[in-house]
Design goal:
357 residues; binds flavin-adenine dinucleotide
Length: 357
């Protein structure tokens, strides 16, 4: 998603000769094809919260020709906490007053989702949040980029940077050398592959997270909102007639292990589901999978120029918000690449320079 969004905004600025290298035969099969597709703008960190809110406006009212499909199913998101975690939810709302969370009486949420276990005493709601059409978003960025001349090279693996006499010359790929005076690293969990980047490696760390989907359930209304239980690290939303469930596991892994499911983590999610959705304890799990959320130590995105090598840019470390925030991520990255910097207020805090001693 990061590469597609960056190419889209670069191409719209009139930049030519953009080539998007993707090692897979199909775009969007890694984290972008393995996430929960939730538009939850209430990110606790205010900087990212504002980026999420701006990005949501793009999705709710995309540019003409971006997609024929609506990009957001506005089912709404409930954030709910019991007494033990009410202070956390309150602190998120106080830190982000412009986010637009509406406090609601818990009975409203329980009225909509009667199978939810009691005990959630503090609830907020945002009606415009909901479920993203990730495929339509990715295709919108890719189509817009290629319409403006960008080229998507599928099945072409980036193997490393070629630097000659201290200057960036291009990239080594699985099908030979490509000359380039600017290289943008937007490779998700593989940003942590230190061997690939040698002296230019940054402290990225992928964390694996699992999702599971139940078989269709008569109790589930497909128009239910997303419910996020704060502090208990459990969320769910309707999917394919059943429920998509997440226990918010986060185990640090090497990128090549990021999509390998761990039955023990799936079992932990099942235990949380039984706690919060007790009526569904016997529901069959139709499918499950794992994917990577990639972070740097301060948990903020990494967008911008690498001051160690002219022409090298990063758009990575998007954690658990890379789909929600892609419109601003792509725009900010394109400003860096085209202008050498960005006037966006978040730009300095997200720039790679902060990670260098
Ligand atoms: C379980 C889970 C749930 C999530 N839920 C949400 C959510 O609800 N909402 C949300 O906003 N975000 C969510 N996320 C986070 C979101 O999925 C990521 O932030 C986002 O997909 C990151 O996009 P990306 O483009 O950086 O990475 P990716 O989608 O992984 O893209 C990187 C691409 O680079 C390619 N690549 C890697 N190495 C090379 C190479 N050497 N040469 C060529 N190509 C290469 C890969 O094949 C891949 O296609 C979730 C993540 C997970 C794992």
């Amino acid at each position: 998603m990061a590469g597609a969004a960056t190419a889209y905004f670069l191409a719209r600025r009139g930049r030519r000769h953009i080539r998007l290298l993707e090692k897979e035969k199909i775009a969007g099969t890694q984290s972008t094809g393995r996430n929960a597709a939730i538009l939850r703008t209430m990110i606790p960190a205010p900087l990212l919260n504002r980026i999420a809110c701006t990005s949501a406006r793009f999705y709710l009212d995309p540019p003409a020709g971006f997609s024929t499909e609506p990009l957001v199913e506005k089912v709404g998101v409930y954030l709910a906490a019991g007494p033990n975690h009410a202070a956390t939810l309150r602190s998120w709302c106080e830190a982000n007053p412009e986010n637009g969370q509406a406090p609601v009486d818990p009975s409203v949420m329980y009225g909509r989702i009667p199978i939810l276990a009691p005990g959630l005493t503090h609830v907020t709601h945002k009606a415009d949040d909901g479920v993203l059409d990730v495929h339509a978003i990715l295709q919108g960025f890719l189509r817009g980029a290629s319409r403006n001349g960008a080229e998507l090279l599928l099945g072409r693996e980036f193997l490393g940077l070629r630097v000659a006499d201290g200057r960036l010359a291009g990239v080594e790929t699985s099908e030979g050398f490509l000359e380039a005076d600017k290289v943008v690293v937007a490779n998700g969990g593989w940003a942590a592959a230190a061997d690939t980047f040698g002296p230019y490696a940054l402290p990225f760390a992928p964390y694996r997270r699992h999702l599971m989907v139940t078989s269709p359930l008569p109790e589930v209304d497909p128009h239910w909102p997303v419910v996020w239980i704060v502090g208990e690290e459990f969320y769910f939303r309707p999917e394919s007639g059943g429920l998509l469930l997440c226990g918010c596991d986060a185990v640090k892994v090497a990128p090549e292990q990021g999509e390998v499911s761990d039955p023990a983590e799936l079992e932990k999610t099942a235990v949380k589901a039984a706690r919060w959705l007790p009526g569904l304890a016997d529901a069959r799990i139709a499918r499950s999978w794992a994917g990577m959320r990639t972070f740097v130590p301060d948990d903020l995105f990494v967008i911008g120029a690498d001051p160690r090598l002219e022409g090298l840019f990063w758009v990575a470390g998007l954690g658990g918000h890379g789909i929600t925030c892609a419109p601003v991520i792509g725009r900010l990255a394109a400003e860096w690449i085209a202008e050498g910097g960005s006037a966006h207020p978040a730009a300095p805090a997200l720039a790679p320079a902060r990670l260098l001693g």
